[in-house]
Design goal:
The protein is an alpha/beta fold and 408 residues long. It has 13 helices and eleven strands. The longest helix is centred in the C-terminal third of the chain and has 32 residues.
Length: 408
């Protein structure tokens, strides 16, 4: 990631012009990469002065998925509302802000466009510095707003749009160990959940996410009932199987085929749905932890991590309690400290964007010299991919004993 540098002189002149009354710098963060309009104001110590989020879940539930044009129009309506709400909660005026930070990459093109247009109008009107933020980097940095985490550290991001294992070496400096090859885990959890709830009582068809539906069903299911194949482990001599990349489309096909077979046999009821959910969740989590395990070993082989390594687990899928327990099991075996941000900070939010902006503001870098010419980027890698180096190491995973009980 490359950013233009705002000189210390310009920052000094800006502060003189503003004659800021507050003793600490404040950043307004704006998030609109997909289907949530969110904003927050945060100070340089990580204190949240105000936060607001407007979900589009109800509107998109009608169409069975997020429609890009609908999402864009909702952002256009909601962003001014959430920003006004945040400023009211913070009890400040726009002239009290030190900068505005907005997620400009990656994400849904029309959603990014809505957020960027709104932000450009805002910074132009109030003559504020503007900091473009990488959405995935914001996820990675969030934990540093609440806990002291020094570079370098490992980051596992699992969400509805991404699955990524990377080494955070510094601001804007990331090495990608593993990335998603097809369908991200959150999207697959949602698709499986949408199919399963067709055969469940109405109370299961709530406004909650597909991931939460699967987790709730899995807690009462038999995870050994349906032995779904773990992705990228079927052919142990292929290069794909010795990487840290993630793949969920094959697992999704297995699960949907199983549901179709059970439907044809008239065997789909609450119990069978619980068993399918538990078996699916088990396979998905084992795949994620396998790739994580290999990544930790690689970092140790190459001396890329600290003497006491740290792993940050974030993203919407990280809210899954079974995933957290399984990742913790791997971390304990590998002498790695696991840090999970609070669940409300794992999903997309304005706080993470504001904090990422604050990190760059503190360093005096990443601030746009010409906000009007900033562009959004729907596809934007967080850093350099070094997965081929992992394949060269040909790391065979040691066996890890995992207890998958009926009630997980």
């Amino acid at each position: 990631m490359k950013y233009s540098i705002l000189s210390k002189r310009i920052l000094h002149e800006f502060n003189q012009i503003r004659n800021l009354s507050q003793s600490k710098r404040l950043v307004l963060g704006i998030e609109s990469t997909f289907d949530d309009s969110a904003a927050a104001v945060i100070d340089e110590d990580g204190k949240v002065l105000g936060e607001s989020i407007k979900s589009q879940m109800l509107e998109h539930k009608i169409t069975g998925g997020v429609h890009p044009v609908t999402a864009m129009k909702l952002h256009e309506v909601n962003l001014p509302l959430v920003v006004d709400d945040v400023m009211d909660k913070a009890g400040i005026d726009f002239q009290d802000l030190s900068a505005v930070a907005t997620a400009t990459q990656p994400g849904s093109a029309l959603s990014l466009q809505a957020g960027l247009i709104f932000s450009k109008q805002l910074v132009a009107k109030h003559r504020l510095p503007f900091i473009p933020v990488h959405h995935m980097e914001a996820h990675a940095l969030t934990v540093r707003s609440i806990e002291e985490v020094n570079f370098p550290f490992l980051v596992l991001l699992a969400s509805g749009g991404h699955c990524l294992l990377c080494l955070a070496q510094n601001l804007g400096n990331y090495k990608i160990l593993g990335q998603i090859l097809d369908e991200p885990p959150g999207a697959v959890f949602d698709k499986v959940a949408r199919e399963i709830v067709k055969y469940l009582p109405p109370e299961y068809c709530s406004t909650t996410s597909g991931g939460r539906i699967i987790e709730a069903l899995a807690k009462k299911g038999d995870s050994l009932k349906h032995p779904f194949s773990i992705p990228l482990t079927g052919h142990t001599k292929t290069v794909r199987s010795r990487s840290c990349n993630f793949s969920f489309s094959g697992l999704q096909s297995q699960v949907l085929r199983k549901i179709a077979i059970l439907r044809e046999r008239n065997e789909l009821d609450i119990v069978t749905c619980q068993d399918v959910a538990a078996s699916f969740q088990k396979a998905a989590i084992q795949h994620i932890t396998n790739q994580l395990h290999r990544g930790i070993i690689f970092c140790q082989i190459r001396n890329l991590s600290q003497p006491s390594p740290i792993l940050v687990l974030s993203g919407g899928v990280a809210a899954n309690s079974c995933l957290r327990e399984s990742v913790l099991n791997i971390c304990n075996k590998m002498n790695t400290k696991l840090i999970c941000p609070p669940i409300h900070l794992c999903t997309d939010n304005g706080i993470m964007i504001a904090w990422a902006g604050m990190e760059y503001l503190k360093q005096g870098i990443g601030i746009s010299e010409d906000p009007e010419n900033v562009r959004y980027e729907p596809r934007s890698p967080l850093g350099d991919y070094i997965g081929n180096e992992i394949i060269k190491e040909n790391i065979k995973l040691p066996k890890v004993k995992v207890s998958w009980k009926r009630h997980i």
